[in-house]
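Final report, closing paragraph on structural work. Over the funding period we assembled a curated collection of sequence-structure pairs, and we close with a single example.
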Amino acid sequence: MTTLVLSYEGRLKEAHKILERMKIKQLMSYNAEENKRLIQRSRMLGTTYKRCFFENKKLSLVLDLDHTLIHSVRICDVSKDDQDYLDKKAIVVSSMQDDNCRNGDILYKYMGAIYVKLRPYTRESLKQLSDRFELFLYTMGTRFYAEVMGKLLDPDGVIFNSIVSKDDSTIKNRKNMDILAGPDEKNTIIIDDNKYVWEEHQNNLIQIDKYTYFTEENGGHKLKKDDQEGFGDEDEALKSISEVLQGVHKSFFELFPIPQTDLELQEYVDTVDVRPVLKASRKGAGNC
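Its predicted structure, as stored:
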């Protein structure tokens, strides 16, 4: 009888299938006890994930969604005049299976309910960073919203390792790496506009400027005054941070070359730490 021996990448795929099956069985709302059970399984599989990441010369990167990669607003909260203008510019996406989510990278009218504006350089940055990092999307929105926006950003399902929402967290209104399989304090960088939700992981965080495309007014939203004639959005924060991240990746693997033997790799996984490299990059970039 022949025994099939999976590569680390093969084991990673099998582990991911297990976690996805567990998530499907969970209720579609916050459930702390169920989430704690999921964490136990995530920890069991965490070493497999981390070894695979390092074998592929990748670090983990956790990305916030709202005001980091996108700005979304409910259509009903936008003034009628601005709706008329936006409807002429927006790409209409009617469902999660709609191929229109592959077209363009500016503004979407999604399922007749929300306008979604992508931050400049979002698609380019995700593509570039996915070559060097395992990407995780983590939002304080609901699981349904997270999956819908994840599909918009990653229609082929090849960019994000996993997508996590507030419904998956173990502490309400807080983000924590305990729910993620693979990322930990030693191998992970976090990008978020809100530092307060990452109370336990400040040393892993790069705080990005809050991205706001629509301004709030009288309980609703409207277009910024300088955008009435077109999409003159000059925000380059994501582009700048992407360059910093690529520099951190380069410095990390120069400082910690991948070992050649399996035994050395296990010790490597347990000891290397990205945080000093990230701290040095902050000083060099003026505390980005």
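The chain has eight helices and eleven strands. Residues 1-6, 24-28 have pLDDT under 50 and may be disordered. We thank the funder for supporting this effort.
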